[in-house]
Amino acid sequence: MSEDTITDVSKLTFEQALDQLEKIVNDLERGDVELEESIKTYERGEALKKHCAKLLAAAEDKVEKIRVGADGSAKGIEPLDS
Prior knowledge:
Elements (H helix, E strand, L loop, with lengths): L2 H4 L7 H17 L4 H30 L1 E3 L5 E4 L5
Helix pairs in contact: 2-3
């Protein structure tokens, strides 16, 4: 079992999760993985996809909270829970 499979998805950065997801897509597209392994790989891919979507949504929320001054420049950020 590779380190990628052992790593808890929730602890990955967006970039790490996306890299693993791209590798999974490539592996599955090649079609040379046995059925049982393909199912496990697909399930991990689904978990990685959900994790990436969650991290991306959180980043978008932060971007939306950037305060803009009268001159149009960023003046700081507001807490997400305001």
